[in-house]
Structures are given as C-alpha cells and as structure tokens.
C-alpha cells in the first residue's frame, strides 16, 4: 500500500482536485463572500457577484460551477502528472545507481565464482545451524542465509519463529584479540576454530551484501553479523603464528 | 571503463550518493572532479586520470591507483590506508594530513613524512590531530599519543587504544563498542554521548573525564581510575571495582602501574602495598600518604609532594626523584638508591 500508485499519485491528485473545487465554489456558500467580492477588482468582483446572486444570474452561476468543475479536474490532472514525474525521477535515480554498481562489479573478473553463495530457491530448507562455542549459529560462511534476511527486525522475527538462525547477532559470537605474527592487534571473531578479523561496519543489509560479494571476488572469505546499529563484516585471517586472547567476560565484570 | 558508467556515476553522485565502495573506475577520466568526502573504499582507479581532482577527506582505503595520474590532486585528510599508489603520478599532489599505514604502497622514493601525512600505527604521534568523522574501526593505535586529538563522531568499533594517551581527547558521539581501552589515559577526555558498550576500560584513567550520555552497558571498568571530577551519566552506579582517587582514599594494594597521575591529589591516601611501577606522578600530591611497601619502581616523582609520606619499605628503584635532603636521607637509609 505504501508504494502503490494510488497512494503516491491518485490520492494526492484527488485531494488537490477536491481542494480546488471547494475553493472555487466557496463564494456560493459563504455569507462573508459578498463582502469579500466587493473588494475584488473588476471583472473578478463582478464575476463573483453574479455567481453568488443565483436568482438574477442563473445562467452565469451554472457556467461558473462548470468552470469550477473543469478547473478542479485540471488541478487533479496537473497534480497527478507532477507526482508521476517525481516518482519517475526517484526510480530513475535508483536504477542508475544500481547500474553503476553492477557495471563496477562486471568490470572485475571473479576471483572464484564457485565460492559465491546463491540465493536459495523459494521453499528450500533453511540452512542447518552449526555449533559455535555452545551457541548455535548457522554457518562459518553464513552469507547464503544472510541474503535471505531482508532487515534486522525481520531476522529477529525469523529467529524467534524457530525457522533456523539467519544473520547472527554479534553478541552470540566468541570474540578474540589476535596479536603477534608481526601484525597489528585486531578484534576477531571465532567461527568453528577459524578467525575472522573485523573489517568494516555497514549501515544496512544491501551495503553489507555488496561488501561481502566484493571481498569474495577478491578471493577473501567474509562473513557478516548484525547488531542493533547495522552489520559488521569480518574477513578470514589465518591464525598461524598469532596469539588469540579471548575478549574479557564483560557481562560478569559489572 | 566506458563513458556510460562515468555518466551514471556522475548522475548518482549528483543525486546525493556518496558510497561507491569497491567501484571500478579503471582508466576513467576524472580530471578536475570534486569528490571530497566520497567513500571509495576498495575502488580501482588503475590508469585513471585524476589530475587536479579533489579527494579531500575522501575514504580511499584499499583503493588501487596503479598508473593513475594524481598530479596536482587534492588528497588532504584522505584515508589512504592500505591503498596502492605504486607507479601513480603524485607530482604536486597535496597530501597533508592524509592517513596511511604500513600496508600503504607508495611510489619509489616517495616520503609520506615529507608530504606531512599521518601514519596510523601503534605508538603513532597524533596529538591534536583532526580525525573526526572517520571510519577507524578495528585500527590498532595502542600506545599512540592522541592527546587533544579530535575524534568526535568517529567510527572506532573494535579499535585498539591499549596504553594510548588520550588526555583531553574529544571523543563525543563516537562509536567505541568493543574498543580496547585497557590502561588508556582518558584523563579530562570528553566522551559525551559515546557508545562504550562492551568496550574494555580495564585500568583506564578516567580522572576528570566526561562520560555523560555514554552507553556503559556491559563495559568492563575493572580497576579503572576516577575522581570526583569524573562525570558519569545520571543514575549510573559506579561499580566498586573502580578506584576512586581522592585525598584520604583507601588504595591499599591497588594496581596503578603505568598510570598517568600527573597533578592528582592523593594526600593522606593509603597506598600501602600499592603497585605504582612506572606510574607518572609528576606534580602529584602524596603528602602524608602511606606508601609503605609500595612499589615505585621507575616511577616519575618529579615535582611530587612527598612531605610527611610514609616511605618505609617502599621500592624506589630507578624512580625519577627530586627529594629534599631529609627525604633523600630516608631513601638512603632504606638502602634503595634513587
């Protein structure tokens, strides 16, 4: 309903036409209209006068109402056209952006096309959750399931419906600090004994999805988690020669 | 790179889009384009003509500039961490304040220090620098000097500030979730409205810090230091795992090693058996304090008021000290050279 043509185009046009008609026929119904018509310059004042005194200018009043009807129809059509044009501009802008990003993706050769996860077919079984440190998560590479999550709130709903965990909230993961190996210290996520270091926070699912796909095309394995303020993208880091220190049990500290 | 892509990029840019993460602009002609503050994280500008282009404060992290022409380009305060500028033409490019790290690849013979770029690395000297509105999530700045640095509204998720000096730093409204602030000096820092959820502030120095409006849920504050001038959010109950530094405070056996306690008033405090190893007590007041059995190994005691302090069995090995004559005699009596 929110994005329907009725709400975006027809309804505003009807409202504008109705307002126009009411405005034009107001002099016929109002007591104060006569006083106002006296102040109007000719021929507008005479015209308004004749429209109000219906017993003297019956023919003219009928013509005036006809004019009001036609004007309100014109207002309605004009409004509908303006709304349609605006809607077209918005859609065109979105299309251009999608095209830019799609072309940008096409310009690069895929590092490993087989590694890309695909959207599961409608009605397919949800991915089976895996065990992670006693907490159920859906996969080491949970992008396939993440694709099925339209938003944070939806993923929460799906989780509570018991249809299998989708995008996993960060709080449920095991966090570590990776140190040593001649590299900087970094925050990492442990998934089935493998470490994924923090890469970037993304504000919404589309941005997170684009980034994960971009990283996968570069040959980097990536996963995404969500929290209350968006999505976090993590990239696989070989843990060889690096020391992993568990993130402190924060909940117990306070 | 075809012309149509460039036209579409321009149309999207004019329409207000600023996030072009991972876009491929290979061979594009962006000569004189104004792309300030645009997000080009991981973009490919190989062979592109970017002469005189404006990339001020743009996010160019991990961007590729192989054989790109950046002559006369404005890259001031741009984020060039992990960017590949090898074989790029940087002649007359302005790079003051641009960020780089050890993974940034520069053309041969190029000196980022001479170009006055700022390196983001552990131990970096970034005092009073403007790093606001930046995405610095996950960056390791342990031990860095960030005193007086402007970090307002910055993305610092999972950043490492262990032992960093954030004295008087401005961190208002920044995202510090999961940040490692262990032993960091946040003395007089402004953290108003910052999100510190699940951050680790173990033994952090919060003396005089403004923490009003901060999200401190599940924040690790064990052993953190605070004083009467520290401002917490209304209704926040200070856990008793924090050390309250005040005259006459009971800090028996407290671990204050490495803490910056310059100018702190701890007169009459009980610091018996406390660990003040390598702490900085410059100008602090320890008059009449009980320091018996305390460990002051390598502690900076320059200008510290130790009048009337109990220094029996105090370890003052390698302490930097300017005790008056009578106090020096006491140290000598303890057989521990200053």
Instruction: Specify Rg of chain B, calculated over alpha carbons.
Output: 25 Å
One letter per element, helices H and strands E, the order of chain B comes to HEEEEEEH
The chain-level mean pLDDT of chain B equals 92
Low-confidence stretches of chain A: 107-166
- The overall average pLDDT of chain A, rounded, is 68
Give me the count of strands of chain B: 6
Low-confidence stretches of chain B: none
Count of individual helical segments of chain A: 8
Kindly give the count of domains of chain B. 3
CATH architecture of the largest domain in chain B: 3 Solenoid
Structural class of chain B: little secondary structure
Strand content of chain B: under 5%
Pfam families (chain B): Pentapeptide
Protein name (chain B): Low-complexity protein
Written description of the protein model:
The complex is a heterodimer of chains A (254) and B (338). By secondary structure, chain A is α+β, with helices and mostly antiparallel strands. Chain A has 2 domains: 5-106, no CATH class; 130-253, no CATH class. Chain A has helices spanning 5-29, 33-39, 44-52, 58-106, 143-147, 152-161, 205-217, 250-253, and strands spanning 130-132, 135-137, 174-180, 183-191, 194-202, 222-227, 230-237, 243-246. In chain A, the strands form 2 sheets. A 6-stranded antiparallel β-sheet of chain A has the order 6-7-5-4-3-8, covered by helices on one side. In chain A, strand 1 and strand 2 (135-137) form a beta hairpin. The model of chain A is unreliable at 107-166 (pLDDT under 50). Chain B contains 2 helices and 6 strands. Chain B has a two-stranded parallel sheet. Chain B has a two-stranded parallel ribbon with strand order 3-5. Chain B has a two-stranded parallel sheet with strand order 4-6. The chains are: A alpha+beta (254), B little secondary structure (338). The interface between A and B is large, with 36 and 48 residues.
């Amino acid at each position: 309903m929110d994005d329907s043509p009725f709400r975006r185009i027809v309804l505003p046009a009807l409202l504008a036409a109705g307002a126009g008609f009411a405005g034009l026929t107001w002099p016929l119904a109002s007591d104060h209209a006569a006083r106002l018509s006296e102040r109007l310059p000719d021929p507008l004042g005479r015209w308004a006068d004749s429209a109000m005194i219906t017993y003297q200018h019956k023919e003219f009043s009928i013509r005036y109402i006809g004019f009001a009807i036609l004007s309100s129809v014109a207002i309605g059509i004009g409004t509908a056209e303006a709304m349609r044009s605006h809607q077209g501009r918005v859609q065109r802008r979105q299309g251009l952006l999608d095209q830019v990003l799609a072309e940008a993706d096409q310009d690069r050769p895929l590092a490993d096309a087989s590694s890309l996860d695909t959207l599961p077919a409608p009605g397919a079984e949800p991915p089976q959750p895996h065990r992670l440190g006693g907490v159920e998560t859906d996969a080491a590479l949970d992008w396939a399931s993440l694709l099925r999550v339209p938003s944070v709130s939806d993923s929460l709903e799906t989780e509570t419906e018991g249809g299998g965990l989708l995008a996993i909230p960060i709080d449920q993961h095991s966090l570590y600090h990776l140190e040593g190996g001649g590299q900087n210290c970094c925050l990492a996520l442990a998934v089935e004994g493998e470490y994924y270091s923090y890469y970037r926070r993304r504000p919404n699912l589309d941005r997170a999805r684009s980034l994960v796909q971009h990283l996968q095309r570069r040959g980097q394995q990536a996963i995404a988690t969500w929290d209350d303020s968006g999505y976090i993208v993590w990239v696989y880091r070989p843990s060889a020669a690096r020391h992993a220190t568990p993130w402190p049990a924060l909940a117990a500290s306070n | 790179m075809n012309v149509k892509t460039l036209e579409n990029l321009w149309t999207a840019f004019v329409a207000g889009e600023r996030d072009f993460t991972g876009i491929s602009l290979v061979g594009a002609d962006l000569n004189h384009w104004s792309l300030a503050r645009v997000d080009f994280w991981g973009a490919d500008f190989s062979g592109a003509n970017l002469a005189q282009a404006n990339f001020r404060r743009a996010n160019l992290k991990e961007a590729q500039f192989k054989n790109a022409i950046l002559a006369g380009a404005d890259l001031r305060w741009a984020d060039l961490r992990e960017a590949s500028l090898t074989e790029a033409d940087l002649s007359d490019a302005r790079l003051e304040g641009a960020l780089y790290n050890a993974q940034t690849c520069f053309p041969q013979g190029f000196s980022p220090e001479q170009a006055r770029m700022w390196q983001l690395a552990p131990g970096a000297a970034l005092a009073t620098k403007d790093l606001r509105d930046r995405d610095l999530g996950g960056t390791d700045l342990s031990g860095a000097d960030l005193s007086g640095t402007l970090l307002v509204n910055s993305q610092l998720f999972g950043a490492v500030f262990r032992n960093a000096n954030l004295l008087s730093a401005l961190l208002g409204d920044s995202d510090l979730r999961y940040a490692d602030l262990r032993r960091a000096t946040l003395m007089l820092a402004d953290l108003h409205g910052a999100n510190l959820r699940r951050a680790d502030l173990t033994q952090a120095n919060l003396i005089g810090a403004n923490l009003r409006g901060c999200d401190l849920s599940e924040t690790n504050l064990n052993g953190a230091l605070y004083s009467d001038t520290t401002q917490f959010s209304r209704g926040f109950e200070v856990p008793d795992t924090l050390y309250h530094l005040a005259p006459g405070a009971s800090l028996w056996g407290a671990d204050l090693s490495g803490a910056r306690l310059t100018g702190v008033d701890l007169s009459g405090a009980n610091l018996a058996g406390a660990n003040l190893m390598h702490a900085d007590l410059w100008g602090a007041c320890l008059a009449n304090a009980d320091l018996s059995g305390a460990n002051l190994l390598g502690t900076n005691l320059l200008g510290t008021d130790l009048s009337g302090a109990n220094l029996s069995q105090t370890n003052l090995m390698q302490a930097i000290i300017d005790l008056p004559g009578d106090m020096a005699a006491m140290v000598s009596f303890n057989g521990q050279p200053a």
